[in-house]
Amino acid sequence: MEIKLNEVSFSYNPRSQIETKALDKVSINFPEGKITSIIGRSGSGKTTIAELINALLFPSEGTIEYGSFLLSSKGIQNNHEINNLRVNIGLIFQFPEEQFFNMTVKDEISFGMKYFKYKTKDIDNRVKNSLKLVGLSEEYENRNPFTLSSGEKRKVAIASILAFNPKVIILDEPTIGLDALGKKNLIQLIRKLKMRLNKTIIIISHDIDLVHAVSDNVILLDKGKVITEGDKYTVFKNEELFKEYGMHIPKMIEFSNLVFRKKGIKIGYRDEINDLIKDIYRYVK
């Protein structure tokens, strides 16, 4: 599913003395089957976009298109239920494990499906399949989610969304609380969701190296406005722009730029550190 924001504005506490404009006439296209990341300093409007796309908020101005759906300040502009939209857009919050309230992984993943009155057989199959997708065995079904590691909890939260097979997945600060191994596993999972299932994925993150590792396109926000957007290599090429907005570029691109400035060797940009090392080896051989 492709999503388009058309001149979208949003304000918190409108028509009051403490009105805060979070987004100002933002137009963004999230292509189907691609990973698009939104980056920017705190308060730039990143999470507001995620909540608007998931219809937790409605635009003050402008519209959001999701195929046949149209969301505006008046809500959904056709006869479809808003719940149908939310089933197709899975939003995984910054600390999804804080929202756990069931005592087994199976009950946690199946809770939403029971609410929407899915058949028991369908629920059982979807629980097993979603766990498999995130790399957890069936043995986890009877585990207490509160006793799992941070990385395992994050996988269970993602499995809860995947059980609905949404067309769009939004991950808000997905690496928070994860160690190096957990982050590596998450990167592999995100890539699998795109390549095997052709999901449209939106990532909101301060983790520039995660964004560089998995994204096709990157959008830089500041104070509710789009500063720059495009494919990740084009966006991250502008090191001075990132400095201007108090951010840094990915470590691998920073290193490539340093090698070029110091040695005059243009080794290009790579997603993986191993590929970068191979390129350097070719030049010094």
Uncertain residue ranges: none
Q: Write down the overall geometry.
A: globular
Query: Mean pLDDT, rounded to whole units?
Result: 87
Give the terminus-to-terminus CA distance. 47 Å
Q: Classify the secondary structure makeup into a structural class.
A: alpha/beta
Order of helices and strands: EEEHEEEHEHHHEHEHEEHHHH
**Radius of gyration, in angstroms, nearest whole number:** 20 Å
> Count of helices?
11
Q: Percent of residues in beta strands?
A: 15-25%
**Largest sheet, if any?**
6 strands, mixed
Question: Quick one: how many beta strands?
Answer: 11
Q: Which strand order do you get reading across the main beta sheet? A: 7-8-9-3-10-11
* Range of helix content: 40-55%
Task: Describe this entry's structure for a reader.
The protein is α/β, with parallel strands linked by helices. 40% of the residues lie in helices and 23% in strands. It is built from eleven helices and eleven strands. Strands 7-8-9-3-10-11 form a six-stranded mixed sheet, with helices on both faces. A hairpin with a 2-residue loop joins β5 (69-72) and β6 (75-76). It is globular, with a radius of gyration of 20 Å. The chain starts with a strand and ends with a helix. The model has no long low-confidence stretch (mean pLDDT 87).
